[in-house]
Amino acid sequence: MKRFAVLLCCGLALLTTSCGSRRNRIVIGSKNFTEQLILGELLAQQLEHTTGLTIERRFYLAGTYICQQALLADRIDMYVEYTGTALTAILKEKPSRNHQDVYERVKQGYARQFGLTVGEPLGFDNTFAIVIRGEDARRLNLHTISQAAKYTPQWRAGFGYEFMERPDGYEGLARTYALRFAAPPRIMDLGLLYRALKTKEVDIVAGSATDGLISALGFVVLEDDHHYFPPYDAVPIIREQVLREHPEVRTAVAALAGKITEEDMRRMNYAVDSEHRDATRVVAEFLREKGL
Predict the structure, then answer these.
(1) Residue 45: in which H helix or E strand, if any?
(2) Which residue ranges make up each domain of the chain?
(3) How far apart are CA 156 and CA 261, in angstroms?
(4) For tag attachment on the chain, is the N or C end more exposed, with fewer CB atoms within 10 Å?
(5) In angstroms, rounded to a whole number, what is the distance separating the alpha carbons of residues 289 and 259?
(6) What pLDDT was estimated at residue 105?
(7) Bridge partner residues of 144 (DSSP)
């Protein structure tokens, strides 16, 4: 909780920094993990290629709540969010398993409550992934979270601070699957979760379905057999004022709709996380491949 408070304060401090006049400048934000860096860079390069606007990158803004506040404070103009996160963490509504239903509720809720535009889905669903080591999955013949629940009382868990706090996170998951652990879950930076799992500091973590390191490190994603997690389709969130003043932004962002598959996202995440390639180049190559 102390770590969460520190991150929250740091994020809020960023919001109080004046961006100054930016009539012809678009500020793009992101959360603080690799996929968000890639998606922020994707928006930035797409706008740079198709509009005459100056693009400012303001990445690594902690988590969902900080990015949302940055939008409402006019400190950033857009970032990529996930529909299930928007529905449960921001709108505080009950989840649904229907992708279109969740998208429409988020679109309408963001417009009504915040004056924000939710763009069309980019094409992939980045649901939470409950991950264990491949050797444990094979040894215990585990395929689902329900099956793993038998063994979790002897396991140590590692989760990100946001997963521990959000309504579609740890508490609901533990209740749904009757999960108990050998000790309270360790709250860790997202970038450290897989390292801790590999070195056996923890035995189970909550990652993302599009994480490139899962297959690279031989990990296994347990099936969410009780369908606890809602859809998490990636969508751009944009301030309506930006779209009114710069209609070319709407056209540029709309061109990305449906263009990114889950495999595309895993490949780009792997290139940055495991191959240590520069995200700018990875995104540029992807845009060329897609003819954008």
Answers:
(1) helix 34-50
(2) 2-125+231-289, 128-222
(3) 33
(4) N
(5) 11
(6) 98
(7) 223
| Cα–Cα distance measured from residue 239 to residue 118, given in angstroms and rounded to the nearest whole number | 9
Report which of 118, 83, 124 is spatially closest to residue 100, judged by C-alpha positions: 83
pLDDT tens for each residue of 68-115: 999 999 999 999 999 999 999 999 998 888 999 999 999 999 999 999
Q: 217 with 194: CB under 8 angstroms?
A: yes
| Residue 143 near residue 222 (C-beta atoms within 8 A) | yes
Six token digits for residue 24: 């012809």
Bridge partners (DSSP) of residue 239 are 116
Q: What is the pLDDT of residues 215-233, one digit of tens each?
A: 889 999 999 999 999 999 9
- Tokens 């990158």 correspond to 57
Comparing 2-125+231-289 with 128-222, is the CATH topology the same?
yes
Q: How many whole angstroms separate alpha carbon 67 and alpha carbon 31?
A: 7
Q: Where are the beta strands (DSSP E) in the chain?
A: 25-29, 54-58, 78-82, 116-118, 128-133, 157-159, 186-187, 204-208, 219-222, 234-239
Of the chain, the end-to-end C-alpha distance in Å amounts to 43
The amino acid at 159: F
Token code pair at residue 88: 């449960």
Q: Which of 133, 90, 95 is nearest to 113 (CA)?
A: 90
Spatial distance between the Cα atoms of 133 and 203, rounded to a whole number of angstroms: 7
- Partnered with residue 79 across adjacent β-strands are 237
- The domain at 2-125+231-289 falls in which architecture? 3-Layer(aba) Sandwich (3.40)
Query: What is the DSSP secondary-structure string of 52-93?
Result: S-EEEEE----SHHHHHHHHHTTS-SEEEEEHHHIIIIIS--
33: number of Cβ within 10 Å:
20
pLDDT at 22: 57
CATH 3.40.190.120 matches 128-222: yes
